[in-house]
Write a structure and sequence with these properties.
The protein is α/β, with parallel strands linked by helices. The chain has 2 domains: about 140 residues, NAD(P)-binding Rossmann-like Domain (Rossmann fold); about 150 residues, Dihydrodipicolinate Reductase, domain 2, CATH 3.30.360.10. The chain contains 11 helices and 14 strands. Helix 4 links the parallel strand 5 and strand 6. Helix 4 runs antiparallel to helix 11. The radius of gyration is 20 Å and the shape is globular.
Length: about 325
């Protein structure tokens, strides 16, 4: 049985991940931690968790906890991951994996040297939509892949959003590592890696056009994958309208989908379009957590290694030049 302890039982754990730990066979959530003791106690009560802590080290030392889920903002990921590894406990850590590539690589190296399992929460890999997308590409339904284009835009944040403590940290580079690109692009770039493999050249530019906060609010990036496929993407967080569009163009057709807004893949070839639709998941991390439990139990391979998580951090830094 994998007995989980959560470090950082904030909003992301309320629905996306927290309840799933008790719904996956061979898994249960037995302890949670948050620096605000009252909020930790409230979370534990609402989610029927036996123990709560206001100190991360106390949770890590809990003899009943044999696996740690780290769901704090990125500035604490390295610290808590290393503490859990030192205690001999496997770690499932949220994305982005760390503040920067150097920290992420250190986490991966320390885990490997200690022989402790480390998995990064790039959970879209286990979604039915992206498993289907991978299968369609393997079947060469669009022929040979030529290039991928991505456009992701959002309107500029309102003042209320920037002053809300639930959101403000996401655009504070000292806490998040960057802006909304660092918060959202790891999901997208990891799926590209999952679908197309490693890259042999990455470049990009970034800037702050809106001046609403200190972090970059626009990024453009290009990738040449080792298989010859080219990618170009633009992320803009001060656009007139929101968009979430990715298209894979092949020699005989195209596949179009979004990462966050629609549960649909549209296959177009020979002038005809076929739509594959998927039901929303009640807990978006549950399929990934099931794979992590299998891995931690010794019954499966790592669904997203620390080395892979660090690689995506490296890609982002090459795109932003930071």
């Amino acid at each position: 049985m994998i007995n989980w302890g959560i470090i950082g039982c904030g909003d992301v754990t309320e629905v996306k991940s927290g309840p799933a730990f008790n719904k996956v066979p061979g898994s249960r959530l037995i302890a949670v931690m948050r620096r605000d003791a009252a909020k930790a106690a409230d979370y534990a009560k609402r989610h029927q968790v036996n123990r709560w802590y206001a100190d991360a080290d106390a949770l890590i030392r809990d003899p009943g906890v044999n696996a740690i889920y780290i769901a704090t903002p990125p500035d604490a990921h390295e610290k808590y991951t290393l503490a859990a590894i030192n205690a001999g406990k496997p770690v499932y850590v949220e994305k982005p994996m760390a503040l920067n590539y150097a920290a992420a690589k250190n986490m991966a190296n320390v885990a490997a040297a200690a022989g402790i399992k480390l998995t990064v929460a790039h959970y879209r890999r286990q979604w039915p939509l992206f498993l289907k997308l991978k299968a369609l590409l393997a079947q060469q339904v669009i022929g040979e892949i030529r290039f991928v284009r991505l456009q992701f835009t959002r309107q500029a944040p309102a003042t209320a959003e920037l002053t809300d403590t639930k959101n403000a940290w996401r655009v504070n580079p000292a806490i998040s590592g960057g802006g909304l690109f660092h918060d959202l692009a790891p999901h997208q770039l990891d799926i590209l890696y999952y679908l197309l493999g490693d890259a042999d050249k990455i470049a990009g530019m970034s800037g702050n056009q809106g001046g609403h906060y200190a972090a970059d609010d626009i990024v453009t990036g290009i990738i040449r994958f080792q298989n010859g496929v080219l990618f170009n993407g633009t992320w803009c967080f001060t656009a007139a309208e929101a968009s979430d569009d990715c298209e894979i163009i092949g020699s005989t057709g195209t596949l179009r989908f979004s990462f966050f807004s629609k549960q649909e893949i549209r296959l177009t070839r020979d002038g005809h379009t076929t739509a594959f639709t998927f039901d929303p998941l009640a807990h978006v991390q549950q399929p990934m957590i099931a794979e992590v439990v299998n891995y931690f139990s010794g019954n499966a391979s790592n669904p997203c290694s620390g080395e892979e998580g660090a690689l995506i951090m490296n890609w982002m830094e090459q795109m932003t030049g930071k």
